[in-house]
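seq/struct pair 1
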Amino acid sequence: MPQDLFGTSLGLTPHVERFYREVMGADGSRVEQAAAALLMPVERFLEELQPLVDLGVSNVTDGVLTVLPPRQAVGVYLERHAEAMVESAKVIARASSAVRYLDPAPARTTVGSETLNAEVVHGAAPVQLMETWVAESAGEVMLLRPDQWRLPSESRMAAASGRASAQGRRVRAIYPVRALHQARSTLMDRHASGEEVRLLPEVPSRMAIVGDDRALIPEHPGLTNVRAVVLRDAGIVAPLRLYFEELWKQAVALPVFDAHDVRQDARRLLLSEMADGARDEQIARTLGIGLRTVRRRIATLMLELGAETRFQAGVEAVRRGWV
């Protein structure tokens, strides 16, 4: 995760984030050794460490320091804030289970004491809806795009996204890492049109949000659903926006699309997978590249870092601020 996003994700001050990155390489060390390495008295070291302990990403047990790596730290943070998301998910589940039985004509439907403005559409209707929403509304556009560059409708969706950006509206989209290899030209074109692009190892499902009260999601979460649920209720769209924001914080930003930047972000994603203990086969699937390519890149990376083991590579990468 890029440094400018990690602190924001966990609500850390710049000072605490710098301390976290300095102390991360001391995971497993005794407190006295970690403090000495940072040229601090033990008492001050423990004071500096306390915000991380309060956050749940570090602790001291029997004098031994534990510091979680960035991705696990974000996971702990999200776990602590999961209750509100669970409640939001329940509302979405109730809405989805209700609207899938509706006729494909717009209607206001009551679920218990809640009234929803929703419908189920299929075929070309989702693309037409997006074009209409972009033309009629003035809100931000948020997109989860796990595979849409393969669809015949891609050019129409790209045009709609470009129109929204041209109007000065913010357009954000999250793609899976494999899009770097399968659809790099699409990413470059989207970026050139004003779309903000970020990457995750995997994007769980398609989703489109326009403004505060319009969203389009698959009838069943996934990539290839023919039928889609259209939501026009701000109360239901709100948790979808929160879900998108959480994914956005975790995603890797690609501010400039040139070969150097792509290599840097590919390296960061590879290190992130290695830090999570992923096997080479899993890394290959996640990054959308061949197993031999993964092993060749890891070997090159270890040579560049001057490391003899993957553990040493991880420590040196953290020291250099690569992860």
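seq/struct pair 2
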Amino acid sequence: MALAAGSKRPKLDPEAIMVKVMQCSEFRELSEAYLSDELLVETNLRVFGHMESCPKCREDFAARRALRSRMREAVAASPEFAIQPAFETRMTARLREEALKGRGWASLLASPKMLVPGFAVVLVMFFGGLVGLRMLDSGSIVANANTSLSAFLAETSAKAAGSHDHCALKKMQRWESKEIPIDPAAEQTAEAIAEPIRASFASDVEILHSHDCMYEGKRFSHVIVRRGTHVLSVFFDREGKAKFASDGGGHIVSEREGGMQVASFVAPVGPVFVVSDLPEAENLSTARALSDALRGRDSI
């Protein structure tokens, strides 16, 4: 439409143009690249300008960033992604031996015997470097405590599985006969464990016993329940509460120990271990139900 005679063209605000151009749909497409710092400076400014003016996209971006940070921490802390100590020791010794022979890195990696492990080391270093850079970019560095916690959970999971076999299964006749009464405080703990399992699976859960026990030097508070034909042990490491504590809702580590499924997590009451012969998915679901129920509770 033509301007009327004598009228002036209205002045346009450059910042308003920038925000207008960046639509919410475009922001959603670019947000992941923005998180990874993969955009040009000009595009970064447009994304930032849109977030300043759009509360919904700003909230969505904050949720994406929090989710990415939790996923990185979970992967970095998972024992599945750690190099096995035995492999690392053999590899280090072999590399040192070949280096002392003066053959050089090129011939070393070209050796048929070293091709696969050498390539594996290169991949580990490459992807480890990428993960490290991304973590630095996001301003989060995985603390040594994560490694310590992973090692602790792995070691204690094996003891929990052993205690389940030694204390729950092999003494089942004693628990079924009710010859040993349950202490009132221990019974309260057992009820707090059985209730979320009942609610989660809509099935009856029988409390067999609740007590403290010792296995291979590790003291547990031990709750034994039965769901259908499956016997479950829930162990609380109250001594570990002083070293490892969480407000709950964190990731759950699943392992197979001694033919049993072991799911472990850290709650406000301390590290918790769920042991059973259930399928892995059901054992994990049981652990998740307990993790949610124990969130925010520093005693049980």
